[in-house]
C-alpha cells in the first residue's frame, strides 16, 4: 500500500477499495477520506463490511484492488472489536497494555488515568466489567500517541449510561489530543450526537455526510427503518445529554 512521502491534505484516504475473500465481495468500490481532528463513524447492518473496512484502512487487511494513502509518519491507535482472553491466563491490565507495544508503568498509568481506570492497572483482566475492559482497551490505543484513533465498536458490552459516557470521552480525547477518530458503531441514536461525518456502509457506501442529512437519506431509512430518521435528525453536538432508554434500539 502506498504511503505518501510528502504532506497530504488528509491523514488517511481509501481510493476505490475493493475486497474479496474466497470469491465473496466484502467491500465494493469504497472511498473514504479522514482529515485531522474529525470524527468519522461507520454504520451499517451486520455483514456490511464495517470491521473489514477499518482493518483495510490501517493495513491489517490488504485490499483486492484500490489504493490506501496515509500521511507520512501517521500514528494509529487501534481498538479491536473483540479480544478473546483465556480465563486461565494470568494477565493483568498492565501486561495487556504492553503485549504488542513497549510502555513504562508510568506511561500506562497515565493513559489509563485519561480513560478513568488508572486504579485497575494491576487488576486481572478477566475480573474487569464490560465497561472497564473497553476503557482499558481505549487507553491501550492511546499509548501510540495517535494521529488517528480507530475504534471498532468501542461501546460493546457497555450499558446504556456507560455508552453515553464513553462516546463523550472519545469526543473529549479528540479535542484534547487533536487526533482524528474513525469508529464503527451500532449505537445509532448516540452516535449521531458524537460524530462529524457518518458513512453508511453495506459493502458499498450507501450514503455519507453530516449526521442529519444521512439520517434522512432514503438508503439509510431503508436499512434502519423510518422510525430512526426523525429522532436522529434532532441530535446535534449541543444536545443536553438527556437520553430516553427506549431510544437505544437498533
Major sheet: 6 strands, mixed
- The number of E-state strands comes to 9
Q: Bin the helical content.
A: 25-40%
Q: What is the strand content?
A: 15-25%
CATH topology of the largest domain: Rossmann fold
CATH H-tier superfamily of the largest domain: P-loop containing nucleotide triphosphate hydrolases
CATH architectural label of the largest domain = 3-Layer(aba) Sandwich
| Model regions low in confidence, pLDDT < 50 over at least 5 residues | 1-6, 229-250
Approximate shape: globular
Mean pLDDT rating: 84
Rounded Rg: 18 Å
Provide a count of the helices: 9
Q: Give me the side-by-side strand order of the main sheet.
A: 5-6-7-3-8-9
Which structural class do you get from the secondary structure elements? Answer: alpha/beta
Order of helices and strands: EEEHEEHHHEHEHEEHHH
Number of domains: 2
What distance lies between the first and last C-alpha atoms, to the nearest angstrom? 35 Å
- Name of the CATH first level of the largest domain: Alpha Beta
How would you sum up this structure, described in words?
The protein has 250 residues and is an alpha/beta fold. The chain has 2 domains: 1-75 and 148-250, 3-Layer(aba) Sandwich (Rossmann fold); 81-145, no CATH class. It is 31% helix and 23% strand. It has 9 helices and 9 strands. The protein has helices at residues 50-58, 93-97, 105-114, 130-142, 160-177, 188-191, 211-215, 218-224, 228-233; strands at 12-21, 24-34, 39-43, 65-70, 76-79, 148-152, 180-184, 197-202, 204-209. The strands form 2 sheets. It has a 6-stranded mixed β-sheet, with helices on both faces. Helix 3 (105-114) packs across helix 4. The protein is globular, with a radius of gyration of 18 Å. The protein starts with 11 loop residues before the first strand and ends in a 17-residue tail after the last helix.
Amino acid at each position: 500500500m502506498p504511503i505518501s512521502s510528502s504532506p497530504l491534505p488528509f491523514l488517511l484516504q481509501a481510493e476505490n477499495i475493493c475486497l474479496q475473500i474466497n470469491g465473496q465481495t466484502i467491500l465494493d468500490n469504497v472511498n473514504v477520506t479522514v482529515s485531522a481532528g474529525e470524527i468519522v463513524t461507520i454504520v451499517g447492518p451486520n455483514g456490511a463490511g464495517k470491521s473489514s473496512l477499518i482493518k483495510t484502512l490501517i493495513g491489517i487487511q490488504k485490499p483486492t484492488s484500490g489504493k490506501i494513502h496515509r500521511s507520512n509518519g501517521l500514528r494509529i491507535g487501534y481498538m479491536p472489536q473483540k479480544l478473546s482472553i483465556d480465563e486461565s491466563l494470568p494477565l493483568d491490565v498492565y501486561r495487556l497494555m504492553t503485549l504488542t507495544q513497549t510502555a513504562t508503568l508510568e506511561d500506562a498509568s497515565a493513559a489509563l488515568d485519561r480513560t478513568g481506570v488508572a486504579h485497575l492497572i494491576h487488576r486481572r483482566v478477566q475480573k474487569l466489567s464490560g465497561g472497564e475492559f473497553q476503557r482499558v482497551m481505549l487507553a491501550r490505543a492511546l499509548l501510540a500517541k495517535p494521529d488517528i484513533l480507530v475504534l471498532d465498536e468501542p461501546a460493546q458490552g457497555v450499558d446504556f449510561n456507560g455508552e453515553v459516557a464513553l462516546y463523550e470521552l472519545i469526543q473529549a480525547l479528540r479535542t484534547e489530543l487533536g487526533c482524528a477518530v474513525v469508529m464503527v458503531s451500532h449505537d445509532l441514536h448516540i452516535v449521531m450526537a458524537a460524530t462529524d461525518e457518518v458513512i453508511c456502509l453495506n459493502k458499498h457506501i450507501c450514503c455519507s455526510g453530516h449526521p442529519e442529512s444521512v439520517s434522512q437519506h432514503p438508503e439509510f431509512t431503508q436499512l434502519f427503518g423510518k422510525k430512526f430518521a426523525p429522532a436522529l435528525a434532532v441530535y446535534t453536538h449541543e444536545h443536553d445529554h438527556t437520553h430516553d432508554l427506549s431510544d437505544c434500539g437498533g
